[in-house]
Amino acid sequence: MKMHIAFWLTAAIAATAVSAQNFPQRPVRVIVPYAAGGGSDITIRIVQARAMELLGQSLIVDNRAGGGTLIGTRMVQLAGGDGYTLGVMDPAFIINPTLVKDAGYDALKDFTPVTLITATPLILVTPPSFPPKTVQELVDHVKANAGKVNYGSPGDGSAGHLAMEQFRSFFGLKMIHIPYKGAGPAVVAVVAAEVPMLIAGSGGVPFIQDGRLRGLAATSARRLPAIPNVPTFAELGFPQVNVQTFAGVVAPAGTPPAAIKKLHAAFAGAVQTPEVRTRLEQLNQFPVGNTPEEFGTFLRDNQARLVKVVQDSNIKLER
User: Fold this and answer.
1) What are the residues facing 217 on neighbouring strands?
2) How many CB atoms lie within 10 A of CB 128?
3) Residue 286 burial by CB count (10 A; 0-12/13-18/19+): exposed, middle or buried?
4) Do residues 79 and 28 make contact, with C-beta atoms less than 8 angstroms apart?
5) Distance (Å, rounded) from C-alpha 151 to C-alpha 157?
6) pTM to 2 decimals?
7) Per-residue pLDDT tens for 85-101?
8) Which residues contact 143 (CB under 8 A, 6 or more apart)?
9) At 215, is the secondary structure helix, strand, or coil?
10) Which residues 6+ apart lie within 8 Å of 225 measured at CB?
11) Mean pLDDT, rounded, for 246-269
12) How many CB atoms lie within 10 A of CB 12?
């Protein structure tokens, strides 16, 4: 009996290994835990076509917004480690377990890093109809209307939320947070003057360029080529406002190394192609395409840094 059990276990392990070596044999689903039109969604769709060519299979982008990214993130976590379900994650992925008691996952233990696609500075934007035209005018306006001014974000725990809370805390402002189901809906809300301000990523760039949004300051070290008239917080004398965002691909924990290797080759390879790099850079996204090990280190380092932002800004969520 024991010999039969050992035989079948050995056979199962061998079959799994062969399956991983032959990966992928069907389309791969890529979950974005935000509504369409936001930074992470834009990023993966730019990379998608070239990555499919390199992978030799279809990549199906699946937007699963809600719960401050928890719905989509948990779907990836619980999908099983066969390589056929991935997630495109941003800072909310690594900070939500700190902000939300029942987040239900550990970003560093329950997922396997594949590659960091891009790192992206953020931009404080307002509708042109909003009276303040500079950061200082905005600060003065909010202080004169303490507790009455709203700001939007892509969702609880998102980079835009953390950056605005960092901004609010640094200047000692009292504002009301209005979370949306992704950067796309949040940007649309600011364009429509539904909320008067937002710290946005690449999704806000086209609206600044065509005049539908006013860019007040960016969290980058230097001015961004696509919006050269927008100053940085650092040059305005506020380098403490510096949260940036990123988009990276992760798989559920336990995904076979052979599958991770092929996924990495596809996504990182796509990021390194000139046409993809150019499109990303036009949106002020800095292409990366690093190794799974390097992306894992990046996640650990950024988690520690963003936890400090949460603590310094005294961010608390009610869920």
Assistant:
1) 124
2) 11
3) middle
4) no
5) 14
6) 0.84
7) 999 999 999 999 988 88
8) 171, 172, 173
9) strand
10) 281, 284
11) 98
12) 10
3-state class (DSSP) for residue 220: coil
Amino acid in the structure at residue 122: L
Rg (CA), the chain: 21
**What are the start-end ranges of the H helices in the chain?**
2-21, 39-55, 70-77, 91-99, 135-144, 159-171, 183-191, 205-209, 257-271, 274-282, 292-313
Greatest Cα-to-Cα distance within the chain, rounded to the nearest angstrom:
80
Question: Considering the chain, what is the average pLDDT of its residues?
Answer: 91
Pick from 204, 62, 52: which is nearest to 124 by CA?
A: 204
- β pairing state of 111-120 and 286-287: antiparallel
Whole-angstrom distance, CA of residue 269 vs CA of residue 184:
27
* Sequence letter at residue 89: M
Strand partners for 245? 120
Crossing angle of the two packed helices 39-55 and 274-282, in degrees rounded to 10: 180
| Strand 111-120 relative to strand 245-252, pairing | antiparallel
Q: How many CA atoms lie within 13 A of 193 on its CB side?
A: 6
Domains of the chain listed by start with CATH number = 27-119+245-313 (3.40.190.150), 123-218 (3.40.190.10)
Nearest CA-CA partner of 266 in 77, 30, 14: 30
292's CB contacts (< 8 A; 6+ apart) are: 112, 113, 114, 115, 260, 264
Task: List 287's β-bridge partners, or say none.
Answer: 118
Task: Measure the CA angle with vertex 208, ends 207 and 214; round to 5°.
Answer: 120
Measured between alpha carbons, how far is 25 from 84 in angstroms, rounded to an integer?
9
How does pLDDT run across 268-311, given as a tens digit for each residue?
999 999 999 999 998 889 999 999 999 999 999 999 989 888 88
Q: Helix, strand, or coil here: 169?
A: helix
Residue 28: other Cβ atoms inside 10 A: 23
